[in-house]
Design goal:
The protein is an all-alpha fold. It has five helices and no strands. It has a domain of about 60 residues.
Length: about 100
């Protein structure tokens, strides 16, 4: 089966994930073409394939947050000093966006 059949589905998933993560009050950011200096790792590497996919970064970011909350001191810091307790979804969005940028 050709991977080109999955491209429209992947594009829709990527667009939905980017729309979910991208805050409405900030200018859009194109994660597939980051601005700045050349990377230490080539753009055709496996790392770039993972990092330029907003779905994989979102899933990995959420998993990282969950793992961080397993540490008692980190959990206490997040719980006591952020809006996570009262409004977790925007907090997760901002964390995911910060990781992606």
């Amino acid at each position: 089966m050709s991977t080109s059949l999955f491209k429209p589905v992947r594009n829709r998933i990527d667009a939905a994930a980017a729309a979910f993560i991208q805050p409405a009050d900030l200018a859009p950011f194109d994660f597939s073409q980051p601005a700045g200096e050349a990377a230490l790792i080539a753009q055709d590497s496996v790392s770039w394939q993972v990092f330029k996919n907003p779905v994989s970064l979102f899933i990995g970011g959420v998993a990282a947050v969950i793992l961080e909350l397993a540490e008692a001191r980190v959990r206490a810091g997040v719980w006591d000093h952020t809006s996570f307790r009262t409004d977790p979804v925007p907090r997760l969005k901002r964390t995911g966006l910060a990781a992606m940028i």
